[in-house]
Amino acid sequence: MSARHLPPLTALRAFEAAARHLSFKHAATELSLTPTAISHQIRQLEDRLGVPLFVRGTRRVDLTPAGQSLFPALRDGFDAMERAVRNVRPQARQRALVLSTTMAFASRWLLPRLARAHPGIALHLHTSDEPVDLHGGAAQLAIRYGPGRYPGLESTPLLPSRFAPVCAPALRVQGADDLARVPLIGFEWFRRDAVTPDWPLWFERAGVAPRPRQLHFSDEVHAIQAAIAGQGIALVNLALVEDELRGGLLCQPFGPELAGHAFHLVWPQALDADADVVQVREWLLAEGATSA
Hints:
- The chain has helices at residues 9-21, 24-31, 35-49, 65-88, 103-110, 199-206, 220-228, 242-247, 275-291; strands at residues 54-56, 61-63, 95-101, 121-127, 141-146, 153-166, 184-187, 215-217, 233-237, 258-268.
- It is of the alpha/beta class.
- The chain folds into two domains: 9-88, Winged helix-like DNA-binding domain superfamily/Winged helix DNA-binding domain (Arc Repressor Mutant, subunit A); 96-291, D-Maltodextrin-Binding Protein, domain 2 (3-Layer(aba) Sandwich).
- The strands form two sheets. Strands 4-3-5-10-6-9-7-8 form an eight-stranded mixed sheet.
- Strand 7, helix 6 and strand 8 form a beta-alpha-beta unit.
- The chain starts with 8 loop residues before the first helix and ends with a helix.
């Protein structure tokens, strides 16, 4: 293959920048040179080609027909070179951090706050009522409802839990006596213990004769949606309906409130000082502090 017979690359770059700006001064600024140096390189290029490339005026320069012919090819060539160089450089990629939590917590509390998450981290949500294996690397961080004791894992309280009856204001529920006319909404607890805050425990603490549930759902999210729709009164975690209570879609007509387990942030001990885990942890704790 024969060698390419081209003028010096520095001269071609000087010409392309000056032709793009129609200014030796602006070309000099772009290339970190002086206008005199740009003028000298272009003069050398013109001498080598044997044709003038610019018509030099007092305040600006214009391309000659030869310059107009040469400029598009050089512009496109330098653009292609820049793209090629950019494509072979290693790209700075966001690290993907997996955060696991329950479906109810993700949809009712976490999703409305995701826009305020750290922008430098690609946060992936894993939603399941079954605890994910943090030791196996399926997730780097989890939010769990429970007592907060997780062998081999670090944990810190994120959000307290209080459970109380809530309903749509249109039902005009004012006291426990209204339970005789309003359907009770319940949901299936994934795990139960002696202090699970469900309707039987609520009736016991309230000193009210128990009534059977008339609407029962497999998860808390659907129970909350049914309450918002005015289908009855639900005993739910107040932390998951704080926006609806504040906005008037739901009301808390009476007590008592039942204490539940807190939501805890949980992570492997090996990731305790990991920069991304720390950033997400601090963001979640700040959100929890404003919500508590």
